């Protein structure tokens, strides 16, 4: 019934409530600390696993890039081989088509050789004809044809 006893009684009641509440809260706080420690361990394990995953992902990305580069190179090589094959087929067709021309070219070459051999004589004969038709008289022309040109041609043949 006194004011001093009322304050002391309030304090005692508060301490009782605190004690009762602390009996409930203290184990929960300890459980929280243990859970936070387990969470920190799990977080460290997760960070390690994520780092390992990132390394694996980097290796996978590098392998994918290498694979893509290799596939592009393979495609380029295949296209080059196909183009080369087409060119070879065209070259073979051209060679086969020109095989028949070889005989004609050989004959033309032989005719050209014959023409070259006769050219000197043909030119000499042409010159003789021009000289014969030229300003000289009949006696001089016969002398040149029979004595000079004919003998010279026989000597050179």
UniProtKB/TrEMBL annotation:
Specify the signal sequence span: none
One GO term of the cellular component aspect?
A: outer dynein arm
Domain Dynein heavy chain coiled coil stalk: where?
2-146
Q: Which domain of life is it from?
A: Eukaryota
What's a GO biological-process term for it? cilium movement involved in cell motility
Q: Which residues form a coiled coil?
A: 32-66
Note the Pfam families from the entry. Answer: MT
Keywords of this entry: Coiled coil
Q: Please verify whether the record's keywords include Coiled coil.
A: yes
Q: Which GO terms describe its molecular function?
A: dynein intermediate chain binding; dynein light intermediate chain binding; minus-end-directed microtubule motor activity
PANTHER family xrefs: AAA+ ATPASE DOMAIN-CONTAINING PROTEIN, DYNEIN HEAVY CHAIN FAMILY PROTEIN
Protein name per Swiss-Prot or TrEMBL = Dynein heavy chain coiled coil stalk domain-containing protein
Q: Which organism is it from?
A: Florenciella parvula
């Amino acid at each position: 019934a006194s004011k001093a006893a009322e304050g002391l009684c309030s304090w005692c009641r508060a301490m009782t409530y605190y004690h009762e509440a602390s009996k409930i809260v203290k184990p929960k706080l300890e459980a929280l600390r243990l859970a936070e420690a387990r969470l920190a361990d799990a977080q460290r394990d997760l960070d390690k696993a994520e780092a390992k995953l990132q390394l694996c992902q980097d290796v996978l990305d590098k392998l994918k890039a290498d694979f893509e580069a290799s596939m592009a190179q393979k495609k380029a090589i295949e296209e080059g081989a196909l183009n080369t094959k087409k060119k070879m087929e065209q070259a073979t067709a051209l060679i086969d088509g020109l095989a028949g021309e070889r005989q004609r070219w050989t004959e033309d070459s032989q005719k050209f050789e014959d023409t070259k051999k006769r050219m000197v004589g043909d030119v000499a004969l042409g010159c003789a004809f021009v000289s014969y038709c030229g300003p000289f008289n009949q006696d001089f022309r016969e002398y040149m044809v029979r004595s000079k040109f004919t003998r010279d041609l026989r000597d050179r043949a």
